[in-house]
Amino acid sequence: MQNNINKFPDGFLWGGAVAANQCEGAYNEDGKGLSTQDIAPRGIMGAITEEPTEDNMKLIGIDFYHRYKEDIKLFAEMGFKTFRTSIAWSRIFPNGDDVEPNEKGLQFYDNLFDECLKYGIEPLVTISHYETPLELSKNYDGWVNRKLIGFFENYARTIFTRYKNKVKYWLTFNEINSATHFPYMSAGIWTPKEQLSKQDLYQAMHHELVASALAVKIGHEINPEFKIGCMVLGIPNYPLTPKPSDVLKAMEQDRVNLFFGDVHARGEYPRYMNRFFKENNIEIKMEPGDKEILKHTVDFISFSYYMSACATGDPEKDIRGKGNLIGGVPNPYLKASDWGWQIDPQGLRYILNQFYDRYQKPLFIVENGLGAFDELITDENGNKTVNDDYRIQYLNDHLVQVAEAIEDGVELWGYTTWGCIDLVSASTAELRKRYGFIYVDRHDDGTGTLERYKKKSFYWYKEVISTNGKSLINNN
Mean pLDDT, 10 residues at a time, over the chain (476 residues)? Predict the structure, then answer.
């Protein structure tokens, strides 16, 4: 047993991450319009409703909209160097296609970023995180319609200009590659998934990729000091066996996700997509200027990492795991979380090396964490807490592998754990699936005081940050 000493660079950005739609609440306050999340009470996996319903936990979230000062203070106590959050597009442009922004929405994020900066916490802001304005979804079929590029440009230009002296780090679209699996949640596409053609789906992806590159161009014009990255869902695929057909299947499955990073980092469509498009009767409609816009590549690659998956060319063995949200065969050598997500710390080292070898651009881990059932107890001092040693173990083991990747030569700017404070799950819209260092007293039946309590992991992460990773334990 030994400590990992001096592997994390000076200035490493330790922190945590949330999304506006999963924590803010206040879904109809201060001029905010409805988003696609406001009528999705069961999360990614469920159906949508005609109007917001009381059983949608996201409508209140954890009331971050009213309690952000209290929460930022707790993040500062842990020693956060950065805090990743998102801007709710429909707070700024309630319908998405509005000409003028909503000043009260803009002011809220002014206040939020000021609060972060007061404690020396660098905001890391996602421009679009799974919440397209509902009117853009209903009236335009989301990103299937090219007009969304213009609406997004107006939105991005507005927030870049407003916060140019407060926010340095930006992400364009959250997990942009997830749209191939969850077109409504990720790309606001109103057409039901089972009726959506691959042609329309990949045309929508093209529109998002152009909009993302356009945001990079605009952001650098407004403030050349901006660091603007893409954000992809990172799931490495291992061949189930050494059989060549399994190895090739893993390569193909990887490319489904890597395609999006390739365009963002290299500024053009990779040639391997030509075969995919041909075999699926897809013809991307390129407008004049699109190829030039795509050349505005990102400054860094950010990604989420929760699990790896296996791939096989044998149809009889291609049995997907229930917890693997975007597919993949379960790995027989790995254990799984309470929600069936396979736990693979070494997969994080693997994908860090894969991305850095492929792109030679700085990386940023902006989501990693363990969703688990937490039990609030009263300790011997009369304080309410959660003894979440399982979370500590999970994060420790993943961060040890991050340190190994840095030793491998990977340039990594920072690490933000997902759901640093308990929030509503994106995949299931539950609050019982908890990720945070801070317990929020709210439950799936709507009860609870919304009070905040520090878990055992709160103090553990505080020490990790204060020692710049030296407190991590390598159990290998």
Answer: 70 98 98 97 87 95 98 98 98 98 98 98 98 98 98 98 98 96 95 96 98 98 98 96 97 94 98 97 97 98 96 84 66 90 96 98 98 95 96 98 97 98 93 97 96 98 97 88
Q: Is 304 helix (H, G, I), strand (E, B) or coil?
A: strand
Instruction: Write out the two tokens for 160.
Output: 């870049």
Task: Please tell me the pTM assigned to this model.
Answer: 0.97
Whole-number Å distance between alpha carbons of 159 and 175: 20
pLDDT of residue 323: 54
Spatial separation of the C-alpha atoms in residues 429 and 53, rounded to whole Å:
13
Name which of 267, 177, 266, 172 is nearest 228 in CA terms: 172
Asked whether 400 and 2 are in contact (CB, 8 A), the reply is: no
Topology of the domain covering 2-474: TIM Barrel (3.20.20)
Residue 65: closest CA among 94, 31, 93: 31
Look up residue 212 and give its two tokens: 């993302």
pLDDT score, position 321:
60
Report d(CA 270, CA 465) in Å as an integer: 39
Nearest to 392 by CA among 303, 449, 462: 462
Q: Which ranges constitute the DSSP H helices of 240-302?
A: 244-266, 272-279, 290-294
Q: Does 367 qualify as catalytic in the annotation?
A: yes
Could you list the beta-strand ranges (E) of 87-146: 122-128
Q: For residue 1, what pLDDT is reported?
A: 44
Q: How far apart are CA 294 and CA 298, in angstroms?
A: 10
**Cα-Cα end-to-end distance for the chain:** 7
Nearest CA-CA partner of 208 in 263, 139, 265, 266: 263
Q: What is the pLDDT of residue 328?
A: 80
Any idea what the Cα angle at residue 343 is, between residues 358 and 435, rounded to 5°?
100
Please list the residues that pair with 239 across neighbouring strands. 311
| Residue 2 pLDDT | 53
Angstrom distances, CA of residue 196 to CA of 42, 45, 140, 328, 372: 21, 17, 14, 22, 34
* Rounded CA separation 175/128 (Å): 10
d(CA 47, CA 264): 31
- Of 112, 102, 13, 100, the C-alpha closest to 411 is 13
Nearest to 334 by CA among 308, 314, 354: 308
Task: State which amino acid sits at residue 270.
Answer: P
| Distance (Å) of CA 276 to CA 161, 176, 429, 431 | 39, 19, 34, 39
Catalytic residue (one of 175, 367, 380, 463): 367
Amino acid 194 reads E
